[in-house]
Amino acid sequence: MAQIEFDEGTGTFPYFIVLLYGIFLLVITYFLWPKSKKRDDRGSECQCGPCCQKRNKVEKRWTVDKLFKIIRYLVLLVCWLFLFWLIYWAVPQEPVGESEEWDLFKTLVIDREATVSQIKKQYRLLSMNHHPDKGGDPEVFTKVAKAYEALSQEEARENWEKYGNPDGPTVELLHLV
Question: Where exactly are the transmembrane stretches of this chain (predicted)?
Answer without folding.
Answer: 12-33, 70-91
